[in-house]
Amino acid sequence: MRAREAALRSALLVLLIGTGACSIDQGALLPTDAGDGALPDSGVDTGTVPDSGTPPPDSGIPPVEPCVDFGEPHVVKIVSGDALFEGATHDGTEQEAPGNIALRSNLYRYGAWAVAGHEEAHLGNPPSLSDLDGQVATATAYRDDFDVSYDDSTPPHDLLIAGDGVYTIEIHGELRLTAGTNTLHATVEDRVILEVDVDGTPNTLSRGTSGSGDVSIDAPRDGWYRVRGAWQSDGGNGALTLEITTPAGARRGLWTEEMRVDASAFRSREVHGWENTSLDGAPSGSRIERSETDWSSTGGDQYPGVGLGNHDNWAVRWVGRHLIPDPIDAFHFVANQGAHLFVDGVFLGSGADRTLDSAAPDGTVDVIAELWDGSSSSAMLLEFNGAPFPVDHLRPSSRFGGVPHGRGDEFAHSVSGGGSRTESIDLGAIPSGSTSAVEVSVIIEAADPGPINVTVTEPGGLTETRRLVDSAWSRQAGQWHLRWVPDWADTLTDADGTWQVTVENTGTDTVLWHHIGVLAHLGGTPEPFPRSGVFRTAFIDLGDETLIRGVRGGGIVTGRSGVQFAMRAGNTPVDVAFAPTDAAGDLASAIRGRYVQIEVSLSGPGWDTPRIRDLRILGDACRRCAETDPLTCPEERTTEGLVALWMFDEGEGGMVRDVSGFQTHDLITPTEAGWS
Question: What global pTM score does this model have?
Answer without folding.
Answer: 0.67
